[in-house]
Design goal:
With 267 residues, this protein is mainly alpha-helical. It is built from eleven helices and no strands. The protein is flat.
Length: 267
């Protein structure tokens, strides 16, 4: 299956994405037999398949079989896999929780919740880590609602519009990278049949001889300290906590800079 959004026929894709909002094709005559399913049911079936088996399992033939349709009749609902991918991504975005921000909630707490919500999204739909959607996102109601909600987390920060967009992209980029790393680690453990602790234990006899502290003093010292603290060479939770703190600290410096300048000018 194609891994980039925005690759389908633009008009038809947008028409499908906004089908509940813009009845552009309500009067369009359709060829072929009467439909027995809805586009929503097709998307739900594809979403279930992708979540269970990955994007590679979402073929039009497999989807048609799941729905009890012929492959050709499936194309009367969705023109192809490119359009289907946009529908999948937008639907996943649409179903994300979007609680309103309280006025007393600070920007750091709001951005932390944005990051955590996106981490949960990628954990629920791991295939999203493989989708390229930065330059041509699916411009449907789900993606637009997600973008609007996440932008509102920056309200009161004083950042201009362009910087706000870049700051959000930077935050989501960290989340996406972390989710991909976490998924890769899980796949490695599953494929090898060994946990990280078991893998290191199996390699310990050779490593004790090969890793000479006199030759690699820093690597041996730091690696041993990190491994002991984390229980492995890499910990998803440690990486998440440290990475998110650093990301927010960096955005904090950006947000606080104009405020410090303003205070200096008035003092």
């Amino acid at each position: 299956m194609n891994r980039s959004t925005g690759a389908g026929e633009p008009n038809r894709t947008l028409e499908l994405l906004w089908r509940h909002h813009v009845p552009a094709d309500a009067e369009r005559p359709r060829r072929g037999p009467e439909r027995t399913h809805t586009v929503d049911q097709v998307v739900d079936a594809a979403l279930t398949l992708a979540d269970a088996e990955g994007l590679e399992a979402v073929s039009m033939r497999a989807l048609a079989s799941r729905l009890g349709l012929s492959p050709m009749s499936l194309y009367t609902y969705v023109p192809g896999k490119a359009e289907l991918l946009d529908l999948l991504v937008d639907t996943a975005h649409l179903r994300m929780p979007r609680p309103s921000w309280r006025r007393t909630t600070g920007w750091r707490t709001r951005l932390t919740r944005v990051a955590e919500a996106n981490r949960a999204l990628l954990a629920s739909h791991p295939w999203l880590t493989e989708v390229a959607s930065l330059t041509r996102p699916p411009l449907g109601p789900g993606t637009m609602a997600k973008y609007e909600h996440e932008l509102s987390a920056f309200d009161g920060t004083g950042l201009d519009d362009v910087t706000t967009d870049a700051a959000l992209a930077h935050l989501l980029g960290f989340v996406h990278f972390h989710a991909r790393a976490e998924r890769d680690a899980a796949r490695t453990a599953q494929a090898s049949g060994l946990s990280d602790a078991q893998w290191w234990e199996a390699n310990a006899p050779v490593l004790e001889v090969a890793f000479d502290p006199a030759t690699y003093p820093r690597a041996v010292r730091v690696g041993a300290a990190a491994g002991q603290a984390q229980g492995s060479a890499w910990s998803a939770e440690t990486a998440w906590s440290f990475g998110l703190t650093c990301t927010l600290d960096g955005l904090g410096a950006l947000i606080e800079r104009p405020r410090k300048r303003s205070r200096a000018q008035t003092s």
